Amino acid sequence: MPVGFSHIPPNLRVPLFWAEFDSSQAGYLASNQPACLLGHKLADAPGPEEELVLVSGVDQAIALFGAGSVLADMVDAYRQNDPTGELWCIAVPQPTGAEATGKVVFAGTPTVGGLVAVYVGGRRYQVPVSPTSTPTTLATALVAAITADLSAPAVATATAGDVTLTAQAAGVIGNTINLAINLRGVTAGEWTPDGLTVTPTAFAGGTGDPDVAASLALLADTEYDFVGFPWTDTGTLDDVQAAFNDVSGRWAWSIQLYGHAFSARSGTVAALVTFGQARNDPHCTVMGYPPNSPSPCWRVAAALTAQAAVGLRADPARPLQTLPLVGIAIAPRGQRFPVGDRQTLLFNGVATCTAGVDDVVHIERSITTYQRNAWAQTDPSWLDIQTPATLQYIVRRLRNAILTKFPRSKLASDGTRFGPGQAIVTPAILRAELVAQYSELEAEAVVENIDAFKKFLIVERDLTDPNRVNVLLPPDLVNQLRIFAMLVQFRLQFAPDAAATAA
Predict the structure, then answer these.
(1) Ranges of residues in the chain whose predicted pLDDT is under 70
(2) Do residues 215 and 117 lie in contact, with contact meaning Cβ atoms separated by under 8 Å?
(3) C-alpha–C-alpha distance, residues 402 and 409, integer Å
(4) What pLDDT was estimated at residue 458?
(5) Where in the chain are all domains bearing CATH 2.60.40?
(6) 362, 324 Cβ separation under 8 angstroms
(7) Contact assessment for residue 370 and residue 379, using Cβ atoms and an 8 Å cutoff
(8) If 0-12 CB within 10 Å is exposed, 13-18 middle and 19+ buried, where does residue 21 land?
(9) Is cis: bond before 179, omega within 30 of 0?
(10) CB atoms inside a 10 Å sphere around CB 70
(11) 417, 403, 453, 409: which is closest to 432 by C-alpha?
(12) CB–CB of 177/99 below 8 Å?
């Protein structure tokens, strides 16, 4: 049987024509790379908690998790950035604790008409003002506008001229809802008419953080390459780090599910630096952005997850810089992080974003929180998410090739004189396959320097287990154009003979 049949027996005597099929040389890596979002649903929403649900669009998310819920809003932000990718959701139970509250107080008597815009979590509510308006009528109008918005992140009630806003979700996450007045200014037709004052009080008082361990455990059997969540408390991030670690988590040799986690956090530079210094996870990215930014952390986290999914699915080695976070608003001009502050954040494990003159928010550099090795020494080996994304792609590619081409092979030492067509491999055959795969990866601009790879690649039989092959794989990952540094050495005028002298 030199051809290597699997099913047609060698002693078959029934004539005449029999055929079996072998796809081992036709396969290629085809990974869907789904994403998963974790967030809160409303208490009375019909969707299940702590259960994976495939979500195709925003309407389905609203029906499952409730309009105004954190999770439905995350799906909205995700779909604005990744309209077609496979998306799953897990509704994490709300923590035991209080809902955050904010307040808007109207006072005074307007002398002219105008339009006051109140922003709650980035959503704008317009309140028309006339000379006959009173604080009570204005408060009532604001409550009506918020109540009419089924996706509002807070519930509004009024007492005279005071409007109390209560977050839809319990917990500390409600404290991150931004409350602002006339964010876009006079040029957008937003101002407070003379004689009237509108005073916001920031959301506060939310207590409690969720327990995400059970929700993360639901991911344990399937590849979810992009996991987005809005909480950045120590307990949540510790649970995420445990779920993705390379000893017993998704990156462990025995599990090989891989993937990356994404979140977002607003705060001052000092607060973000303090936060970043306490983290050290190569499989988690937290984007920092300025306080007074309209978009809540859950929308930023979902948009970042979506853009990372789109970009890294297309090419795991290509940087994400300049990709827009569609539907995300950053702090007003003059309140954004300057380049020096963003440099500081990037040296302390916090990813950054920027906004140009068009106010469109873009990913600047999407790093992981990993900063130090086991000896607490500075270690940039896992700095950018392209490193784990590329390694994940390479390992899956090689695993697919080996399992597809050699699923039931015999193993012999190099130099064994076996007949042609036998289902047998040697270290040299396996080495040749790895080099061939590396050549294809180099053509895809995922790796480089194949000559060095071949020199340092080791494929050998184990000395104690005759059925085992050990491989030392030394891929040289392609890098990214991050910095273009130029010295502009100008002159006011070249000397007449400058060209000849230089020649």
Answers:
(1) 1-4, 24, 29-30, 502-503
(2) no
(3) 10
(4) 97
(5) 99-204
(6) yes
(7) yes
(8) exposed
(9) no
(10) 33
(11) 453
(12) no
Give per-residue pLDDT as tens, 196-250: 999 999 999 999 999 999 999 999 889 999 999 999 999 999 999 999 999 999 9
Token reading at 22: 């072998």
Enter the tokens of residue 395.
Answer: 């390992």
CATH 2.115.10 fits 99-204, yes or no: no
Annotate 461-498 with DSSP letters as a single string. Answer: E-SS-TT-EEEE----B--------------S---TTH
Place of tokens 């294809």: 440
> How far, in whole angstroms, is CA 394 from its chain's centroid?
20
Question: Rounded CA gap, 305 and 297, in Å?
Answer: 12
Q: CB 217: neighbour CB atoms within 10 A?
A: 12
Between 427-443 and 386-405, two packed helices, what is the crossing angle to 10 degrees? 140
What is the per-residue pLDDT for 462?
Answer: 95
Rounded Cα distance, 141 and 153, in Å: 18
Residues in the chain: 503
Question: Which among 321, 381, 310 is positioned nearest to 354, based on CA atoms?
Answer: 321
Least Cα distance to 435 among 375, 404, 475 occurs for 475
Which of these, 63, 59, 64, 61, lies nearest to 47 by C-alpha position?
Answer: 64
pLDDT (0 to 100) of residue 1: 43
Q: Dihedral of CA 58/61/65/71: which sign?
A: negative
Query: 3-state class of 168 per DSSP?
Result: strand
Q: Give the per-residue SS3 of 261-318.
A: EEEEEECCHHHHHHHHHCCCCCCEEEEEECCCCCCCHHHHHHHHHHHHHHHHHHCCCC
Report if pTM > 0.85. yes
The whole-number pLDDT of residue 31 equals: 76
Residue 189: count of CB within 10 angstroms of its CB: 12
